[in-house]
Amino acid sequence: MTTTRESTPPEHTPSRPLTIAQIAELAGVSPATVSKVVNGRSEVAPETRALVEDLIREHGYRRQKKRPTAAPLIELVFNELEGGYAMEVIKGVEQVAREHGLAVVVSELPDHHPPARGWIEGVIGRRPHGVIVVFSGLTRAQREQLRTRDIPVVLVDPTGDPGHELPSVGAGNWSGGLSAARHLLELGHRRIALITGPAHALSSRARLDGFRAAMDAAGVPTDPELVRQGDFSAEDGLAHARSLLALPRPPTAVFAFNDAQAMGVYQAAHEMGLRIPDELSVVGFDDLPMAQWLIPALTTVRQPLTEMAAAATAMVVAIARGESPAQDRVELTTGLVVRGSTAALAA
Question: pTM, whole model, 2 decimals?
């Protein structure tokens, strides 16, 4: 009779998680090697590690009766640490972590969407209370690796659709884009330029959609010539603003999708001898502390970054205690903060 998968011994079926010894037998390695993979140790060949992780994902892993104690740490992961954005997030995480006697480990993994492979082994080895990933994501394999070790993960300002597999905290980006457009329209502006964020960023797409909704409702078309895709950096804002302001019919207002890009717009206006807001109105997004110190102070959409980070940390702590979050997706409100960088269009 032909042997089929159904004839596999009961302890090896996917419905029943395997012990370290059973995983070792299937992989053809020692239990010590499997234990090293489970605990994030580095001295395992990549091919062996991948094989063991595949078996854990397929069959599940039966943990020891005594659960390993989580370290009093919160892992906070950024794709970029520069600027006020990261500082506001760190502030929010620190506030809640301190209340629970937890330290914060901050990692920067630039140019990795999602985090690089070696990062996951370090997290597993440290066995923190939980992981907060900012403006990035995780691969399915990385999510599984953390799930099988009971390490909770919460996303802050996720770049893509977080779905329901991981809890996430974001902001009302669509309504923020809507309020920025309405403000400029009420001031009489019609040629409004946009410097967006990266194409992969969910927040950027939502801000653009909200802006367009306000323009459509007002019967004002969004000129494709005035829409530039940026990367949320001041240098990028400067480059795009130079190009926009050099057009034969330049914009009378610019909506930059974050405050850093708005700073670049200020610099470009200064280079061309344009006065803000008399000859060019500028709106940013985030309301970082530096926004109020620009000259003139920046009109911007406030994104509650500190509160978002605090909410994510509270979720991580609750999940680590075995509690289920009330919501998988938390969205905090944004609001327009009007300062001196916008004015009515001159007749």
Answer: 0.79
Pairing verdict, β 335-337 and 299-302? antiparallel
**Which residue has 């590690």 as its token pair?**
49
- Per-position b or e across 8-29, b if 16+ CB within 10 A of its CB: eeeeeeeeebbebebbbebbeb
CB of 190 closer than 8 Å to CB of 157: no
CB 126 within 8 A of CB 73: yes
The two structure tokens encoding residue 152: 């909770």
Q: pLDDT per residue over 155-169, tens digit each? A: 998 877 766 678 999
Query: For residue 48, what are the CA distances in angstroms to 26, 52, 53?
Result: 12, 6, 9
Query: Over the stretch 27-65, which tens digit does the pLDDT of each residue have?
Result: 777 776 766 677 666 667 777 777 777 777 777 665 555
- Averaged over successive runs of 10 residues, the pLDDT of the chain (347 residues) comes to 34 57 73 69 72 73 60 90 89 96 88 67 87 84 83 88 79 97 98 95 95 97 95 95 97 97 98 97 97 97 96 93 85 97 91
CA 72 from chain center: how many Å?
23
SS3 for the chain is: CCCCHHHCCHHHCCCCCECHHHHHHHHCCCHHHHHHHHCCCCCCCHHHHHHHHHHHHHHCECCCCCCCCCEEEEEEEECCCCCHHHHHHHHHHHHHHHHCCCEEEEEECCCCCCCCHHHHHHHHHHCEEEEEEECCCCCHHHHHHHHHCCCCEEEECCCCCCCCCCCEEEECHHHHHHHHHHHHHHCCCCCEEEEECCCCCHHHHHHHHHHHHHHHHCCCCCCHHHEEECCCCHHHHHHHHHHHHCCCCCCCEEEECCHHHHHHHHHHHHHCCCCCCCCCEEEEEECCHHHHHCCCCCEEEECCHHHHHHHHHHHHHHHHCCCCCCCCEEEECCEEECCCCCCCCCC
